[in-house]
């Protein structure tokens, strides 16, 4: 962390247990960040806290240290079983839950607490067995937690600490009913330590805090500024067809060490990754439907520098601490102003500097006024020459298509037929001159009078006697079958 990002309050003056100080030193922390300096003194004395601060300012370490301290300084509830966790930390996304668990292992390395991580998408039976074996601190996402809870794998009767991270995101993802369900199954708010942290504290978040917390202390850090001062923001007004060439040009000539490119849809992300790979840029996509094992591998490769470019939807915009992200590209402007803040918060973390580049294209430029109103200032606009953009290699397996010019939709009838190519005549067909209008055909000639008439069919001989006449009438009056119907013959 840079010096201007920290306060003058060292962790050694917080009266933390020796086991926690060892974890703090192992993580490389010496002095508190502003959010830690204002929330830890309250939470360490048992006060509920609702904290708001910019992303990347140490909120995770603040509630983890307060959680471990409360468990170390308070006795275990009487009659507690191993399947009754003492603390629960709820995160909105799988990636954030994994990050919290990783930080908890570092800060709690000298404690004997058993940590259990549960989230959807993978390891269902493995996570279930881990819960059945028992845990002290349960970290997970709402859906998987409720799934095991309703199967009576564990219960929440012995909860002593409740932490809700990124509470506003819980509302955005539709988890608020699940959160209320879990909170009502825990002990009363005055019987546990409650902490709520988020980058924004909206009215609905505060309503949740006052309903399920014990008179929480509100802590706001840098409420007047939505983004960090050391993030250099720039905006390009681009056409839809210029976005990919411009991004490739910036990635190749701007020399970013680790770039995070945000898009709004998975289809656009897959298409963008194809173009980047075809132009010698190693990139992968991180979206909601990527299997969890692959998602974790991609995050690991990106964090450790093996993957220089990560194209992601907003699933990666919240709470993830990825070190040394030099550039954040908003390839698609987000449709929510708060998402813009969370996106560019992936860079310039822990006091470092970073660049945030946004493309205002024809499709998403309408969200720009809302974003600038939310930020409280205009984003610096930079210009580029479209004629100087590079000619890109198309993705493999997708050759460029040249569609024929289509006629105007207003053209009808004969005007529309003018655009069609004339059909070649058959080899054996006589050549016929084109006619604008059909000519009347002359009548067929009548046969000559000298021609012999066609022979008439032979008729049955006319009966001459009365008996023969009666027999002939009887024969003609007999019914005939034609097509299954009987029809008398008129004679």
Describe this structure in words.
The structure is a single chain. The protein has 491 residues and is of the alpha/beta class. Helix content is 33%, strand content 14%. It has helices at 18-27, 34-43, 59-73, 94-107, 124-133, 142-150, 167-172, 176-183, 203-212, 243-253, 266-278, 292-303, 337-344, 368-375, 414-417, 466-477, and strands spanning 49-52, 87-90, 115-118, 137-140, 161-165, 193-198, 217-220, 231-237, 259-262, 283-286, 309-312, 327-330, 354-360, 381-382, 480-482, 485-487. The strands form three sheets. Strands 3-4-2-5-6-1-7 form a seven-stranded parallel beta sheet, with helices on both faces. Strands 10-11-9-12-13-8-14 form a seven-stranded parallel beta sheet, sandwiched between helices. α5 (124-133) links the parallel β3 and β4.
Q: What's this model, at a glance?
A:
The protein is α/β, with parallel strands linked by helices. Helix content is 33%, strand content 14%.
């Amino acid at each position: 962390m840079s010096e201007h990002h920290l306060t003058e309050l060292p962790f050694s003056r917080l009266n933390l247990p020796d086991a926690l100080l060892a974890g703090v030193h192992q993580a490389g922390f010496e002095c508190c960040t502003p959010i830690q300096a204002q929330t830890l003194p309250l939470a360490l004395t048992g006060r509920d806290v609702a904290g708001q601060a910019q992303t990347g300012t140490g909120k995770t370490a603040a509630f983890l240290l307060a959680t471990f301290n409360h468990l170390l300084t308070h006795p275990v509830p009487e009659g507690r079983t191993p399947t009754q966790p003492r603390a629960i930390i709820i995160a909105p996304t799988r990636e954030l839950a994994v990050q919290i668990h990783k930080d908890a292992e570092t800060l709690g390395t000298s404690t004997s607490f058993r940590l259990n991580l549960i989230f959807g998408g993978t390891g269902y039976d493995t996570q279930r067995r881990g819960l059945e074996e028992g845990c002290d601190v349960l970290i997970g996402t709402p859906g998987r937690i409720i799934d095991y809870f309703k199967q009576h794998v564990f219960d929440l009767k012995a909860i002593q600490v409740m932490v809700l991270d990124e509470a506003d995101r819980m509302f955005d993802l539709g988890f608020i009913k699940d959160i209320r369900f879990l909170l009502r199954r825990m002990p009363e708010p005055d019987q546990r330590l409650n902490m709520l942290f988020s980058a924004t504290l909206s009215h609905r978040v505060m309503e949740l805090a006052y309903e399920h917390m014990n008179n929480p202390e509100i802590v706001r850090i840098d409420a007047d500024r939505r983004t960090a001062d050391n993030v250099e923001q720039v905006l390009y007004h681009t056409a839809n067809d210029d976005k990919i060439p411009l991004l490739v040009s910036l990635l190749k000539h701007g020399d970013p060490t680790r770039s995070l490119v945000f898009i709004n849809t998975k289809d656009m992300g897959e298409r963008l990754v194809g173009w980047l790979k075809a132009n010698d840029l190693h990139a992968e996509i991180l979206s909601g439907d990527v299997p969890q094992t692959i998602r974790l591998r991609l995050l690991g490769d990106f964090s450790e520098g093996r993957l220089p470019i990560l194209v992601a939807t907003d699933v990666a915009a919240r709470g993830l601490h990825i070190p040394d992200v030099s550039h954040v590209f908003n390839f698609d402007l987000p449709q929510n102003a708060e998402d813009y803040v969370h996106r560019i918060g992936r860079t310039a973390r822990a006091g470092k500097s970073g660049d945030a580049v946004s493309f205002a294209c024809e499709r998403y430029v309408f969200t720009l006024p809302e974003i600038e109103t939310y930020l409280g200032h205009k984003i610096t606009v930079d210009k580029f020459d479209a004629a100087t953009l590079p000619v890109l290699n198309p993705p493999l397996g997708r050759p460029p298509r040249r569609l024929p010019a289509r006629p105007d939709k207003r053209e009808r009838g004969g005007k529309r037929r003018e655009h069609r190519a004339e059909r070649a005549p058959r080899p054996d067909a006589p050549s016929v001159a084109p006619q604008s209008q059909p000519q009347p055909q002359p009548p067929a000639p009548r046969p000559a009078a000298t021609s012999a008439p066609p022979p008439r069919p032979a008729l049955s001989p006319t009966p001459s006697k009365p008996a023969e006449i009666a027999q002939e009438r009887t024969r003609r009056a007999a019914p005939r079958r034609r097509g299954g119907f009987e029809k008398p013959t008129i004679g």
